[in-house]
Amino acid sequence: MARVRYHVEGGIAYFPGLVAERSFETEALPPARREELLGLFDTVCTHRLSSADPTIPEGAADQQTYVIEIQEDSGVRRLVVGEFDEDPVARELLERLRDCADQCEAGGEQ
């Protein structure tokens, strides 16, 4: 299993000292949701073999970026995804990531 951690950086009201990290264990998720989340993470990583940086649309300013880390027995993998990322799989990853964190914080399967 894996531990997922993420925090948000940037945006118009960003104050580094107030950044709250969210984290959860993937084993707390139903197997289908766990596989979906980790699969999306792997897909975005594959799309960005040359860089872990987000693909940001030209002219985008004051957007938030999500710094995502997945800690597994083999090590930690890190990915940065912008809220307006041009990769639709990256945007889907953000949605699922927030859903899974909410589900784990609520303490139950949904």
Notes on the protein architecture:
This protein is α+β, with helices and mostly antiparallel strands. It is 33% helix and 26% strand. The chain has helices spanning 31-47, 88-106; strands at residues 3-10, 22-25, 64-72, 75-82. The chain has a four-stranded antiparallel β-sheet with strand order 2-1-3-4, with helices on one face. A hairpin with a 2-residue loop joins strand 3 (64-72) and strand 4 (75-82). The longest helix is centred in the last third of the chain and has 19 residues, at 88-106. The chain is globular. The mean pLDDT is 84.
In short:
The chain is of the alpha+beta class and 110 residues long. The chain is built from two helices and four strands; from the N terminus they run ββαββα.
Considering the chains and any ligands shown, give keywords for the structure:
single chain; 110 residues; alpha+beta; 4-stranded antiparallel sheet; 2 helices; 4 strands; 33% helix; 26% strand; globular
